[in-house]
Amino acid sequence: MSPSATAPVDAGEQAPTPPAKGIDKFFKISERGSSISREIRGGLATFFAMAYIVVLNPIILGAGTDKFGHQLNNGQLVTATALIAGLTTLLMGIIGNVPIALAAGLGINAVVSLQLAPKMSWPDAMGMVVLAGLVLMILVASGLRQRVMDAIPSGLRRAIAIGIGLFIALIGLVDSGFVSRNPDSAHTTVPLGLGVAGRLQGWPVLVFVVGLALTFILIVRKTRGAILIGIVTMTVVAIVINSLAQIPDAQWGLTIPTVPDKVVDTPDFGLVGDVSLFGGFHEVGLLTGCLFVFTVLLSGFFDAMGTIIGVGEEAGLTDERGQLPGMGRILMMDGVAVAGGGFGSASANTCFVESTAGVGEGARTGLANVVTGALFLLALVFTPLAKVVPSQAATPALVVVGFLIMAANVKEIDWSDSTIAIPAFLTMISMPFTYSITNGIGLGVLAFLLLRVATRRTREIPWLLAAVGLCFLVYFLLNPIEQALGVS
């Protein structure tokens, strides 16, 4: 035993911190001010906040019919969704070492189901997704994708994070039934309203309200595991209420809080690998095929970019320049996820804003992703259990995290500079109001470029950001461009 091992520590000195080992060292858990228990809690919270995708993605893709009248099998879609989400989330955790989970992207799956598939076969449509992922990986390998992210001004980065916070808060309010869309038949100028017909109705909404209040109280009292405690507690409450009150399934939505008849189910991998890379070009032509790939590429590019920035800022992982450690690996794994989603016929996988639920629990490393990814893989055989948590029990976490993101970022924007403040404002409101991260980033970038040109500050515009603005201009004008070219 060395002398230093037994030497007493002076009162004015601190004992040296023991070197990190094993899992701690690999994921840099202590270095980032976290702990294994926090990472596990964070991984659980993220999974419960986004487990709905195992149910929702098959519904969206299954509703589509390809050019030949074929529909995808629901059971196979459930397997593909859980499998690709689990694998890509694990890869992001182990290689990227960030608590950013991935799954089939909402919005992109609608493009695949409603825009691509009707003009080609399902394997052709998924091949387009794979090609978009391969292009993303090339952009990352060339360094171009990271340079685009670096070119975004700090104030706009903060606004992107806030916009995502508002976006996921609205997702929470809508998915819980606290806020609902007014039907067009109502002939009202108000697109959204409280509950149903302006009133909160039913036990499920009460579960959300109580869960939201409980989670905020736990946050204010600085209770460890506040978000996860809220989700688990309200899931149990929902199961009890549903068993006693016999609530119609439609009031709960996609997930019914009941004790499942069976715990284990057999996965069906029939869709995995059923892909045709270039068959879509034969069906629609080279130009239209390239536009389809561009649409998937652009949505995946900027949705993921906004989420990575937002989650990174919320987790405190960014440096003074707003960059995350190992950004190249993170972006490459996102490209792999897009291609992997197409290969598995689950549609493009992308970074999920619900990862902020885990960050809110203290997750700071990829270990949280390992937990989330493992749970998705377990869902392959334990799908009945994954369907136990109703959205009303999980969505309070999204509203709470939306608040936390805004509180952490809004004061960091330079509101005295209108060329930053106005684009920031447009970015923040556009994401929830258009239900799209990509739209918010696009409007913010275009507004920033316009105002800098109008104030003769063009020298302050990075050329790469100007190129991004041009891409967004094409994105917003894509429909008239298609019509002009006769490919709509």
Automatic annotation (TrEMBL):
Signal peptide: none
Keywords: Membrane, Transmembrane, Transmembrane helix, Transport
InterPro entries in the record: Azg-like, NCS2
Record region (Disordered): 1-22
Membrane topology summary: Multi-pass membrane protein
Principal location class: membrane
Residues spanning the membrane: 44-65, 77-105, 125-144, 156-180, 200-220, 227-245, 284-309, 367-386, 422-449, 461-478
Name of the featured protein: MFS transporter
